[in-house]
C-alpha cells in the first residue's frame, strides 16, 4: 500500500495464509465434532477427571494443585504430546494469523488507503475478503467445543515433560477466552477500522443493487442476449467496471452483511449503509462461511443487535427483511433460474454456431456463468435448510439439470476455442488498449518517477502484476498520483486487465465464475436435486451434467491437506443412478412388448378390432410405450454432453460406465426372469426365458440408434457370463439355476418313476399319480425346451451341467461296486455256470441286492438319457463339423480318440464312448481288481433282470416307447457304463458286452420255462429291454443277439406288448 511502510504483495500473502488456516481449522472442527482421529485418551474413562478439571480451571491450570486429577496425563505425557501436537500447532497458526492481520489493518489505516470497487477493484476485493475471512476464522474457532481441553492437555503434558509451561499457552488461552463470543469481540476489534471498512462497503451501493435485479428486469433489458441487437453482435463488450460484471453476488452479500456486523455504527448514521444492508438482508436467509458451514444471518444479526445499546430500531428491520425473504425470495429466485436457463441456452446455441463470437463476447459468457453459479449455490444453500413456508416447492428445482448442462457447455466451448479468445484479445491489447493507455498517460500533468516507471512497465507488458502494484501505490492517502482522480485511467486499466486475463488465465477465471466444487459438501441436497431432475422426462437428456460437476470437486481441496482427497464415488453414484434409469426405460420398453393382454371380464364392452391401435386419433394421446421410448431417447442423449471427464485423477467415460452398468443389470434381470424358487423347485421354462431375453436384447439394440455404444459386445459378454456357474461379480447365473433345478427337480423325481422318460416323443412326462406335480415335465424336458436351454447356456453351461450329472453317476457307480464286492464269490460262480440252470437257481438264492443294483442302474440310465437329449439339442443348435469325428475309430489310439470325442461332445455330436463319463470313472479307479469288478457288475445286472418282472410298472408302453418305471433306460446305462469302464481299463468292450449278452440271454430264457411263476407276467417287456441294449450299442449287433436269443421270442414279445395299445381314429 505504501512504498516505505508495506510491500504491495503482503495482502496476497496474508490471504493465502488465511486459506490454509481456515481449511485446517474447519478440519479440526469436523474431526473433533465427529470424534474422528482423536487420540484414545480423549474417550478413556480414566481421563474424564483430567478433562473436566482442565475445562473448569482453564486457562489458569495448576498442575501441582490438581495432581490428583492430572496423574493419568503424567503417566502418558509423551503420547499426549505426540497426539495433540498438530492440533496445538494449528491453534498457534490462528493466533499468529491474528497478529499479522492486526498489523496489516493498522498499517492500512495509517496509510489512509482509499477503497472503491469500481476504481481499484483488486485492492478493494482483497481487503474485503481479508475482513470476511478473518471473521470466519474466529467464528469457526468458537465452534470447537473441545479446544480448551486440547490445548490444556497439551500444555499439562508439556509442563510435566519440561518443567515449565509452553511459551505460547498464556496468549493462546487468553485468545480462547476473548473469542468465546466472537462477534462481540470482532466488532470491538474493528471499531478503529470502521472508516476504511465502511468506505469499501459503500463502494458497492451502485454495483450491488444493479446486480441484484429481478428476472423481469433482466428480461426487459434482454440481459445476456446476443440476438437482441444483431448490428452490434461483432462489437466488443466493454464497460467501466469489467471485473465487477462477473463478481459473485454471494460474495458481495457476505462482504456487506458480515462487514456491517463488524462496523455497525454507520447503520444508524448513514442512510446509504442502511439501504445497502437491508437490500442484502432481503436476498436470502443463509450465508456460506466455508464449505457446508452457513450462518443464519437474520438470527445472528437480531441476537447481536439485541445486545447493543442504541440499535433497537434495527431489530424490526431485520424481522421485516426475514419475512420478505420467506414470503418472496424463493419465487424470485425460481424465476431467475428460469430466465437463466433460456438465456444460457440461447447463448450456447449462438456460440456453438459461431465460436468466433467468443472473442468480442467473452464477458457475456463469464457473466452468464457467474449469475448461474450464484443461483445454483443459493438454491443448494437454502434447500439444505428449508425455512417454514407455505411454498416449500420454491426450494426444489426439477429443471436444474438443464442449467448445469448449459453451464458445462459454455465451459467446454471456452476450453475448445481458447486460441480464438487469445488471438482476439492479443490483437485488442496491442491495437487498442496499449494505445489508449499511452495517450492517457501522456496527457497526465503530475506523474511521479516511481509511478511513471510502473505505468510505463504496465503499458509495455500489460501484466496483471504491474497493475496490482500500481493500484497499491496510487491508493494511499498521501500518494502524489491518486488513482481516484483519474477515473478514465482506472477504467482503461480495468478493461486492459480483463483482456490480459483472457490471454493468460482463462482457467483461473472459470474457477472464479463457474466453480461448483462446494457441492461436494452438500452431497445430500445434490443427490436430491438429481433425483428431482430425473423424474422430469424433459430433463433427462441433461442428467450427465451432475456427474460432470463432480470434476470440479478437486478444486475445493488444498495441497497442504492431501488426506482430504476424496474418491470418485459421487460421480460414479450419479452415473450409476442415471444408468439405472436408462436400464429401467429399456427394460420397461421390452416388458411392454412382451406383456400379454388380460382377458376381458364378463360383461365388458367388446374391444375394437385388431389394427385400430396403430391409428393415432390425437397427437396429444401418449401411450406408455411412447413414454418409455421418450425416456430412453432423453437418457441416451444425456451421454453426448462429453466423451469423458476427470474426477480426482480418475478418468470417467460415461458410455463405458453405462455399458458396465447395463452388464450388471442385464445379468440380474436374466436371473430374475428365471424365477427360480429353491423351496418349491419352480423355475421359468427355458423357451419362455429365451423369448424374454430376445425381447430385452432387441430393446437394447435400439440404444445404438441414440448413443454410440457396442451393444453386441455387451450382449455377448452377458450371455457368455451366463454360461458359467458364477458371473464376473460372483452371483449365480441361469446355468447354476437350471443345473440345480434339473438335478433336484426333474431327475430326482424321474429316479422315483414319478416322471417317465418317453423315447417316442423325446421328452420326460409326468406319471398319472394322486399327488399332482408342481410342474409339467414335458414343458421343460422336451425338444423345444432343451433346444432353448442349449441356446441359453451354450456348450460351457452344458459342460457344467454334465459335470454335475457325472458326479451323481459316479456316486451310483461307487455304490454298485460295493454291492459287487459284497457278492463277489457268488457272482464269480454265476459267471462260470450261467449255462447251468440248476446251479444258477441255487446261486440266485444266495445273491443279495438285485433290486438295488437295478434301481441304481436305472437312475444312471435316466441321467444318461437326459444327457443324450441335451447333447442332441446342442447339436441341433450349433453348426458342427462332422468329418473330424468320422475319421476316428475307437480301435485307434485311445488318447487321440478321447480328445476328438471330447471336442465333438462339446459341439453336441453323439459319440460311441462318452468322454465325460470316461474322465469321471478314471478319477475313481482304486486298484487292480477294477476289471474284474466291472465284469462281475455286468453279470450282476444280467442275472438281476428277471426280478424286474415282479414290478407291476415294468410293462412296456408303445405310446411312450418305454417302460412305466424307466427300466428301458437300463439299455443306455449298460452301454455307456460298460464302454467307459472298459475304455479306462484298456479292455475290449465288444468282447465283454458279448459275455453280458450271453449271461442275460441265458437267464431270460429260463423265464420261459417257469410258466406258473409270477415272473412271467411282464416277461415280454423284459425281453424288449434286451433288444434295446443291442439296438443302442455300437459294439453289439442283431446277429450276435440271435446266436444266443431266438428272434421268434423277440417278435412274440413285441406282439404281446403292442396288444395292450388302444388305437383311436380321428
TrEMBL record:
Instruction: Give the domain of life.
Output: Eukaryota
InterPro entries associated with the record: Nck-associated_protein-1 (IPR019137)
According to the record, the segments passing through the membrane are none
Fetch the Pfam families from UniProt: Nckap1
- Any one cellular-component term (Gene Ontology): SCAR complex
A GO biological-process term: cell projection assembly
Record protein name field: NCK associated protein 1 like
